[in-house]
């Protein structure tokens, strides 16, 4: 009898425990952070809980969960959107009248993530896309998943601060003045004269550019006399003039940073070397050998976001003498776009399906599928 009572008590505790699995999804263990994939340290989990504490203290249910792969769970889902939707409802995230829950789900082996929104915060879809694209994916693509989760969680927690709400409050609708049609202009009123003035200006600019190009061509191709004997000189072709170029000058021509003309006197053998630097070659002068043979490359170490600056490594390599150096450059934060432009981000996909598409939902109707997804 005693054993039967103990068994009954254990069954009741098991059913009522928050760690039970629902519909094949991972079992919720009752906390704000659940690292099923094992990619977070204890200190990182504590940092996430600290970030979420202000929002959760006001009743907003925000949770962060990592899993290895969606295939590890006996749930029939089409992708990360449907899996996150079903998990959101199974865990009853945001189970209060406001329905303002938020779930950040990361499937490490699938290389996919999702911010799932409750029905009461669907207006945050644009902000969710921005967090995915600018605060999470740049770090995930650099192999820094814990840091991306921390930055993403910080961005989510910011939504529920008074400062963020004030900054993103809808602007008052301005009263548009009555439409007044523009006055029509007759030929005598100067409309045609204005168009003619613009045409004259464009013609003048074109004529000036043509004159400059013509003068440059004449200055380069005009006949030249030898400074030593006065005889007429001949310009050598590209194959013949290499004899009179040193290695640095040959490399400049190879990189198209400087083009050289060689004029040679057929009477006394004197020659003249004339350089013509390219205007937009992208090559710079080497501080060591002085030739314009330095190739500069930039590698992004840390992408800039709307809240934080980034870091880039700028490397210079001389193709002539082997000079090499590199430096770290700190870039400013990205300018924050308007709300309408940020909602059209291309780096994430929005799951748009009704709540009836989740076959394993036991909470029922807490999220209609709104949110933002990403992959890396």
Describe it for me?
By secondary structure, the protein is α+β, with helices and mostly antiparallel strands. It has a domain of 179 residues: Diaminopimelate Epimerase, Chain A, domain 1 (Roll). The chain is 34% helix and 19% strand. It has 10 helices and 11 strands. It has a 5-stranded mixed beta sheet, sandwiched between helices. Helix 2 packs parallel to helix 5 and helix 4 runs antiparallel to helix 5. About 11% of the residues have low confidence.
Task: Describe the SSE topology.
Layout: H1 2-16, E1 33-35, H2 42-57, E2 62-67, H3 80-90, E3 102-107, E4 112-117, H4 125-141, H5 145-158, H6 162-167, H7 191-221, E5 233-235, H8 238-241, H9 247-254, E6 258-265, E7 271-277, E8 294-302, E9 310-318, E10 324-331, H10 339-342, E11 371-375
Helix pairs in contact: 2-5, 4-5
Summarize the structure in short.
The protein has 376 residues and is α+β, with helices and mostly antiparallel strands.
Helix content: 25-40%
CATH architecture of the domain at 17-165 and 346-375: Roll
Name the average pLDDT: 81
Count of individual helical segments: 10
The computed structural class is alpha+beta
Per the CATH scheme, the topology name of the domain at 17-165 and 346-375 is: Diaminopimelate Epimerase, Chain A, domain 1
Primary descriptors:
alpha+beta; five-stranded mixed sheet; 34% helix; Diaminopimelate Epimerase, Chain A, domain 1; 376 residues; elongated; three-stranded antiparallel sheet
């Amino acid at each position: 009898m005693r054993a039967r009572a103990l068994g009954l008590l254990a069954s009741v505790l098991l059913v009522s425990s928050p760690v039970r699995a629902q519909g094949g999804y991972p079992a919720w263990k009752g906390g704000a952070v659940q690292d099923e994939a094992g990619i977070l340290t204890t200190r990182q989990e504590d940092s996430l809980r600290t970030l979420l504490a202000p929002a959760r203290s006001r009743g907003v249910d925000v949770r962060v969960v990592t899993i290895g792969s969606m295939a590890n769970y006996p749930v029939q889902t089409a992708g990360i959107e449907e899996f996150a939707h079903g998990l959101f409802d199974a865990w009853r995230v945001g189970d209060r009248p406001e329905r303002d829950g938020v779930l950040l789900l990361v499937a490490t082996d699938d290389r996919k993530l999702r911010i799932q929104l409750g029905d009461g915060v669907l207006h945050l879809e644009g902000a969710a896309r921005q967090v995915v694209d600018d605060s999470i994916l740049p770090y995930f693509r650099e192999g820094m998943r814990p840091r991306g989760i921390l930055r993403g969680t910080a961005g989510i927690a910011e939504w529920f601060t008074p400062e963020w709400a004030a900054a993103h409050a809808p602007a008052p609708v301005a009263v548009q003045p009555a439409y007044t049609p523009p006055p029509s202009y007759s030929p005598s009123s100067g409309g045609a004269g204005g168009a003619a003035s613009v045409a004259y200006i464009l013609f003048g600019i074109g004529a000036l550019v043509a004159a400059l190009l013509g003068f440059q061509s004449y200055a380069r191709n005009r006949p030249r006399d030898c400074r030593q004997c006065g005889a007429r000189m001949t310009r050598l072709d590209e194959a013949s003039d290499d004899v009179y170029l040193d290695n640095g000058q040959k490399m400049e021509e190879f990189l198209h940073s400087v083009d050289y003309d060689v004029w040679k006197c057929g009477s006394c053998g004197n020659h003249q070397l004339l350089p013509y630097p390219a205007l937009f070659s992208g090559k710079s002068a080497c501080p060591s050998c002085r030739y314009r043979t330095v190739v500069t490359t930039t590698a992004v170490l840390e992408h800039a976001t709307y809240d934080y600056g980034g870091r880039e490594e700028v490397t210079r390599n001389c193709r002539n003498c082997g000079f090499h150096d590199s430096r770290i450059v700190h870039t400013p934060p990205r300018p924050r776009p308007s709300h309408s432009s940020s909602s059209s981000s291309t780096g994430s996909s929005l799951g748009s399906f009704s709540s009836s598409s989740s076959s394993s939902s036991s909470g029922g109707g807490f999220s209609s599928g709104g949110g933002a997804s990403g992959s890396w």
